Amino acid sequence: MLGLFKKLFFWNYARNTWQWDVLCVVILIFIFLTPKKWFENGERECNAGHQNSAVSTVLIGAELIENAQDKGRIEQVVKTMTNCPNVEVLQVRALPGNDGKPRGYEVDIR
Fold it and tell me: Which of 32, 38, 40, 97 could be cross-linked to 103 through a Cys-Cys bond (beta carbons 3.0 to 4.6 Å apart)?
């Protein structure tokens, strides 16, 4: 019995065997029949605007923001990305590229 579990765990079957086919079918069943709810993260809820909300960091590409000082534009982009209407931008940090120009921005939000 231990040998069977060891073979299953380490996938120790040749490709042209029925055991291989069964393992593949089991994996596909798991992929397609697993409830989506099992993989959801409760922290992604939009609870922005509350004083006790956790601070999150969002990465934004440089092509979406022309001026890092324009918090209104950054806030608008973050609201669109997160689908949260009351996001508050706390801090913006540039991520420099190899050429010295920003390749994106880290934005702390609440």
Answer: 97
Question: pLDDT (tens digit, 9 = 90+) per residue, 34-60?
Answer: 988 887 765 555 654 455 567 889 888
For 50-89, the pLDDT digits (tens) are: 555 678 898 888 888 888 788 888 888 898 888 888 888 8
| Total-model pTM | 0.51
Q: Please count the other Cβ atoms lying within 10 Å of the Cβ belonging to residue 65.
A: 20
How many CB atoms within 10 Å of residue 78? 22
DSSP string over 30-83: HHHHS-GGGG--GGGS--TT-TTPPPEEEEEEGGG-S-TT-HHHHHHHHHHHHT
> Degrees (nearest 5) of the Cα angle 54, 58, 96?
130
